């Protein structure tokens, strides 16, 4: 029985790789080493599910032998697709987005898209230039782990006519699609919890980024209603640079207790800050939770292993990543989901630190 057409060899296979100095390895080199046609190699690269398994293996062996890398730029020009989705995070120095990024990358790759990760920063003045650099690479979609800060940025993204997801945040007028939660509501939830557990003199150590600020606003508004602070007062707090370090958490607590020695609860804008607060409290002889309740934000992998285990606000990063990938892919597949808004909520993880 003759082999299927895609497996018919045009000439004997050879194990020789392309000669040095002959230029970049091409699809023709792969075809020569595999002993098959360029058309067959192309089918394996672009639609392997339609090619016999034995042929796919032969082509992949030839690709590994030659070191061939597919020219995605040329393919993108021909198809009108770059197969890239640009993803921006405010900072690469924070682990809080890691769960979402891992899930997002996994779901995109399963559909043939690669994630291009960039850092956007917290400064609105830098947003326009950052978006220009991203959009200039012609991604098929954009996922931002924040909301767009400037009118010019919003105009740039809408003019690109590609799907855009703003994530890890919430507002009333998204650029396109929105997947996130209310930071104000998360802050208010922490205030309600501290009130229920009998705390009456809260303070806060907060990173100087906009979302942490909104959580503090939500906490303060609820704390006033709950009479944890005076009706016209602000929550006593210190601001530290974002992304915050453990050391900044230690120095932040020391500064607060020098001003507010009777504080009985410390609200932290990240788990990393909270870890520093726990260390400083121990160094100062303050018992947690006896003297001080400590609450973090993010529920990082180490939060349950601190001493004592950290009470914190958990955000389902995997759900955000999955929903963001699905929203981008659905739009690229022709499904109308403009205006999509998904509130993933949050969960207060009640542990021994509070």
TrEMBL record:
Keywords: DNA-binding, Transcription, Transcription regulation. Pfam families: LacI (PF00356), Peripla_BP_3 (PF13377). One of its GO terms (molecular function) is DNA-binding transcription factor activity. The keyword Transferase does not apply. PROSITE patterns: HTH_LACI_2. Residues 1-10 have a biased composition (Basic and acidic residues). Residues 25-79 form the HTH lacI-type domain. Residues 1-23 are annotated as: Disordered. PANTHER family: LACI-RELATED TRANSCRIPTIONAL REPRESSOR (PTHR30146), TRANSCRIPTIONAL REGULATOR (PTHR30146:SF33). This is HTH-type transcriptional regulator GntR. It comes from Achromobacter animicus. The gene is gntR_7.
């Amino acid at each position: 029985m003759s082999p299927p057409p895609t497996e018919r060899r045009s000439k004997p296979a050879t194990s020789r790789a392309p000669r040095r100095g002959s230029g970049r390895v091409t699809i023709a080199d792969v075809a020569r080493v595999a002993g098959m046609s360029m058309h067959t190699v192309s089918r394996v690269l672009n639609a392997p599910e339609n090619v016999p398994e034995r042929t796919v293996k032969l082509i992949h062996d030839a690709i590994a032998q030659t070191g061939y890398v597919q020219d995605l730029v040329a393919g993108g020009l021909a198809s009108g697709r770059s197969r890239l989705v640009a993803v921006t995070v405010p900072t690469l120095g924070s682990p809080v987005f890691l769960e979402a990024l891992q899930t997002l990358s996994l779901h995109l790759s399963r559909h043939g898209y690669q994630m291009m990760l960039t850092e956007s920063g917290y400064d609105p003045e830098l947003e326009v230039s950052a978006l220009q650099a991203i959009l200039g690479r012609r991604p098929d979609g954009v996922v931002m782990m924040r909301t767009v800060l400037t009118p010019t940025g919003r105009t740039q993204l809408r003019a690109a006519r590609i799907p855009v997801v703003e994530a890890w945040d919430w507002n009333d007028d998204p650029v396109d699609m929105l997947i996130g939660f209310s930071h104000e509501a998360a802050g208010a939830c922490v205030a309600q919890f501290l009130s229920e557990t009998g705390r009456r003199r809260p303070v806060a150590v907060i990173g100087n980024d906009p979302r942490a600020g909104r959580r503090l606003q939500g906490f303060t508004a609820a704390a006033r209603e709950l009479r944890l602070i005076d009706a016209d007062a602000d929550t006593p707090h210190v601001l530290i640079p974002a992304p915050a370090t453990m050391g900044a958490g230690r120095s932040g607590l020391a500064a607060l207790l020098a001003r507010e020695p009777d504080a009985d609860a410390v609200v932290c804008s990240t788990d990393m800050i909270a870890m520093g607060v726990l260390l400083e409290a121990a160094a100062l002889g303050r018992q947690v939770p006896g003297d001080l309740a400590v609450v973090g934000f993010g529920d990082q992998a180490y939060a349950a292993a601190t001493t004592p285990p950290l009470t914190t606000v958990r955000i389902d990063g995997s759900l955000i990543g999955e929903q963001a990938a699905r929203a981008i892919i659905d739009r690229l597949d022709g499904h109308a989901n403009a205006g999509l808004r998904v509130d993933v909520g949050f969960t207060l993880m009640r542990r021994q630190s509070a």
